[in-house]
Amino acid sequence: MTDDKFRDSAAKKLGVNSVDGQLSLDSKSLLEGMGGKLGIAETIIPSLLFGISFALSGEAIVSVSLAASASALFIVYRLITRKSASSALIGAIAVGFAAWLALREGGEAVDYFVPGFITNAVYGSVLLISVLVRWPIIGVLVEVLRGNATSWRKDRKKVTIYSLVTAMWVGFFSLRLAVQVPLYLAGSAELLATARVAMGPPLYALVILVTWLILRATVLRTR
């Protein structure tokens, strides 16, 4: 990945605009941070279809088929519009795995959401490790955009602030697991689908906004 592509990726993950090392946040950049309109639809619609269909039918095969079909349509759209072949491939594997878990012999409808638990656990673990080794990922992303790839680590205050903000993201992914895993263990498919939607783009956007407000009030005031 080239430096420009890495910076673009970093800006999107943070939900900010980056021009000559100056960062800003607006509705457009926040939307990009949430995955854009397509990414939000990909997150919400399959879970909504799953929850509604399972509540009405009580049939795992119907609910999983509808959710997986919706996800597949988004994947096909990405391929047709050439938005991201790699993302489409990863998405296809994830959807296929989720559907197999739910529809395999001995599987249950709630198993469709297991890959999401794995994703949250991996993200949370990576972020936590970055804090423990004092290379907080939020700091890495922000300072790459500001042109200070490594020098910021000499500033103890910055490292502390970035560590706290990164820890907040660890808390975000942990909160998802803390709420959703018990619903999974209880077999509450409809509630799990609802929780996934509620703790998806809306909560994600809130965490991005809080991250921005903290950083703007602290480290972004100075170079």
Number of helices: 10
**Main sheet: strands, sense, barrel:** 2 strands, antiparallel
Q: Quick one: how many beta strands?
A: 2
The strands making up the biggest β-sheet line up spatially as 1-2
Helix content: over 70%
Give the H and E element order.
HEEHHHHHHHHH
Mean pLDDT: 88
Into which percentage range does the β-strand content fall? under 5%
Estimated radius of gyration: 19 Å
What gross morphology would you assign? elongated
Oligomer: single chain
Uncertain runs with pLDDT below 50, 5 residues or more?
none
What would you call the structural class?
mainly alpha
What does this 3D model show about the protein?
The protein is 74% helix and 3% strand. The protein is an all-alpha fold. α3 packs antiparallel against α4. The protein is elongated, with a radius of gyration of 19 Å.
Please sum up the structure shown.
The protein is mainly α and 223 residues long. It has helices at 3-14, 27-33, 36-57, 60-80, 85-103, 114-132, 137-145, 156-185, 189-198, 201-217; strands at 17-19, 22-24. The model has no long low-confidence stretch (mean pLDDT 88).
Features:
single chain; 223 residues; two-stranded antiparallel sheet; 3% strand; mainly alpha; elongated
Give the SSE layout.
Layout: H1 3-14, E1 17-19, E2 22-24, H2 27-33, H3 36-57, H4 60-80, H5 85-103, H6 114-132, H7 137-145, H8 156-185, H9 189-198, H10 201-217
Helix pairs in contact: 1-2, 1-7, 3-4, 3-9, 4-5, 6-8, 8-9, 8-10
